[in-house]
Amino acid sequence: MLDRLELRTDQEKAIRGDGVPRLLEDRDSRAALIRGIRLHYHSAMSEPVRRLSSSMPQVARARNPRRIMSNDIPERMMAEEQPYCIWHPDMATEDTYRSLASKFPGMRYQVGRACAAAGYHVLYQELDLLPEVSIAEEARESETDGGKLIYDEIMSFKSRYAIMDDCKRTIELMDYECPAYLNGNTEVRWRLAARQGITRLSNDDLLPCIEEDMHLGLEDQEVDQRHGTLTDDEAKLLYSPLPRDLPTVKKTLLTQMAAHDGNIERYAQLANSERTLTQLDQDCVIRGVLHHTMSAPYVWDIQRAIMARRIMLNDASVFEDGWPPGVPMPYIIWWPLQPQSDMLSLLAIKVPEMKRQCAAAAIVCDYENVYKNLDPEPSWHLWKVASEFAANPFYRED
User: Fold this and answer.
1) How many Cβ atoms sit within 10 Å of the Cβ of residue 83?
2) In which domain of life is the source organism classified (predicted)?
3) Roughly how many angstroms between the first and final C-alpha of the chain, as a whole number?
């Protein structure tokens, strides 16, 4: 087992493109490798990374965009190897993106988003895409001439569509949302400059994360100052009615103020249910609940999501003295992240009322020893989880 210093040294080398971490089971080391591959073409084309990409789709989804951004289109990409973000840290030429869309038609919306970031208006028109809200926000925030043309074109339509989901990193071509509105949910290109340094004691796996690298970097880095500060027009939104289409993606303060004030209507419009809540976000929600009784039913689900997230991040402090009174217990504690096996065992001991949830998580995560130690009562719910999410037949047979 590697110590903390050895892990950090491996992570630094990986981000610099100088090697593959020895312990890829470690979440941060894996993310550091993804970051390094996306940054460095020589790392992406190295033999160790090439071998890893054949067995680890996540590595392939880092190697392939690096090749694309270096104007080197892969010969083949299985669906699970196709990346979501192909426009950061670099952008390919317009001709490269054109060839990519022709060779892999299923990636047309990723190419459209890249066009919005780069300002490739001509290629965007050739793609003949539905007017998509993430592409519109990316185009507006790119501050390019071509981006403005793309934005104006999308906004000229009577209705727009939500097809790209930055939190899930999915393209939904069948069950999309329409009409959809610009709501500042897009992880636009300038946001990707923000980084969590590997020197931190711990890093959060924050959503959205369109590059799959946990926003890791060699050191902490903030977005450019002008992107972190509200303009006068944006500040007016703090006390003005919100337009249906938000004119900015800088909505963190707007959302926190709505939660803090217990303003359910504003919070419901501004909040993105998939986005990871920071500690300050959580404090604002709790303050709103304590001071505004009518907001409590609405944020009940938010509290449940917060607790589930903290369990998935292996934060045992939330139930150190038993389950907090008045806080709802979550059921799904295994998606989008999987807690460690020790965390599930401890949770079941400290909070016996959550034994079934722990058993369900053990099934999905395939922690067979944890499941056996829990020895849960057979139930339809556990059988359903085992049938739909478990590759190991042991759980269904049990």
Assistant:
1) 23
2) Eukaryota
3) 33
Spatial separation of the C-alpha atoms in residues 58 and 265, rounded to whole Å: 38
- Beta strand spans in 177-315 (E): 196-197, 216-217
In this prediction the pTM is 0.78
Query: Which residue type does 363 have?
Result: I
Q: Which long-range contacts (CB under 8 A, 24 or more apart) does 52-59 make?
A: 52/20, 52/24, 53/81, 56/24, 57/81, 58/30, 58/34, 58/212, 59/33, 59/34
Residue ranges of the chain whose pLDDT lies below 70: 273, 289-301
| Identity at 89, one-letter amino acid code | P
- Which phi and psi (to 5°) does residue 254 adopt? -60, -45
Provide the pLDDT for residue 317: 84
With 0-12 CB in 10 A as exposed, 13-18 as middle and 19+ as buried, what is 202?
exposed
Place of tokens 């999308």: 154
Q: Which of 337, 335, 381 is nearest to 355 (CA)?
A: 381
Tokens of residue 356, six digits: 């079934």
Q: Give me the residue spans of the domains in the chain.
A: 1-83+195-219, 84-95+102-186, 229-310, 331-398
Q: Is 81 helix (H, G, I), strand (E, B) or coil?
A: helix
Spatial contact of 11 and 198, defined as CB atoms under 8 Å apart: yes
What are phi and psi for residue 132, nearest 5 degrees? -110, 135
